[in-house]
Amino acid sequence: MADIFTVIADSTRRDILRVLQQRDQQTEDGTSVSQIVGELSVTQPTVSKHLKVLRDAGLVTVREDGQHRFYRLNAEPLEEIDDWLMPFFVDDATLAAEATQSLHPPLPEPATRFAESLGRTAAVVQTALKRLGA
């Protein structure tokens, strides 16, 4: 399998991914090669060649319907890119600060103690169930 960075380095492939992302929001049927050709104004053989690379990298899925093929974006492999890029945009201190901020006010002390107790009880029950083979 080609390195994901090498696959998305090509601008035509990035354009195809963008078209698929936009069209996936509009339809669940997928996008045909001819629709991609029409959006990008590139030749059908060029689009087909790039779709094969994207398919081999797991970035698109294909559904066959007779002689027609319909493509959809599979964004899951792009998480590798996201994981690699995030440290360049967010530092650990920022993440820690955001994690400690809450949209809700802190729980009162009795509720906090109860939640901790409930969590410990759940862990004990889970361990007991595992021992029993449940």
Automatic annotation (TrEMBL):
SMART domains noted in UniProt: HTH_ARSR
Tell me any Pfam family this protein matches. HTH_20
Name the SUPFAM superfamilies on file. Winged helix' DNA-binding domain
UniProt keywords, alphabetically: DNA-binding, Transcription, Transcription regulation
What PROSITE patterns does UniProt report for this protein, alphabetically? HTH_ARSR_2
GO molecular function list: DNA binding; DNA-binding transcription factor activity
* InterPro entries, alphabetized: ArsR-like_HTH, HTH_ArsR_DNA-bd_dom, HTH_MetalResp_TranReg, WH-like_DNA-bd_sf, WH_DNA-bd_sf
HTH arsR-type domain segment(s):
1-93
Task: Output the superkingdom of the source species.
Answer: Bacteria
**This protein's name:** ArsR family transcriptional regulator
